Amino acid sequence: MANVARMTGGCACGAVRFRLDAAPYDTGWCHCRICQHVSGAPGMVFTTVPLAALVMEQGEDRIGRFRSTAFGERRFCRDCGAPLTIHVRHQRGEIDIAVGALDDPGAVAPGFHLYAPEAPAWFSLDDNLPAWPALRPDTRGLEPGRTEAGDG
Ligand SMILES: [Zn+2]
Ligand SMILES: [Zn+2]
Fold it and tell me: Which is nearest to 31 in space by CA: 105, 110, 128, 87?
């Protein structure tokens, strides 16, 4: 993953701009109902970077925070509503970036589907990627085999 050009992104209205100072990894779909609600779409694609590698270059004061679950906080642009990131309790040192917010969303590609059964029936999962009923069994930060991050 060396020599990956620095990636940049932002919200729909341009108020928020950010850059990624590390190559993102672990790109995948999430079809949970919260992702559907905040995006208005059948799921969202996220990619992950170390927390310190997400650098807000503009509009930090425009960013709203939404604690969408007991374990996750989402950030979005308060002016246009665009979803930007999700930060989960079990991966404190990392942050997930909404791929649609990247200037070049095609620079990464999803490798799996999370919460696949929650996707609408009309959404085609027929892309040969692994599709999990919830989180992956090897999710970093969770006990092996655990696939839910709920507060339990
Ligand atoms: Zn905006
Ligand atoms: Zn989700």
Answer: 110
Alpha carbon separation from 110 to 7, 48, 96, 127, 152 (Å, rounded): 16, 11, 13, 10, 29
Task: Indicate the number of domains in the chain.
Answer: 1
pTM of the model: 0.91
Ligand 1 centroid–CA 84 distance in Å is 10
93-111 residue pLDDT tens: 999 999 999 999 999 999 9
2 part of a folded domain: no
Ligand nearest to the CA of 113: 2
Tokens representing 71? 């374990």
Q: What is the CATH number of the domain that holds 49?
A: 2.170.150.70
Q: How far is CA 82 from CA 63, 72, 98, 102, 103, in A?
A: 10, 17, 9, 12, 13
- Is residue 14 in a domain? yes
Ligand located closest to 12 CA: 1
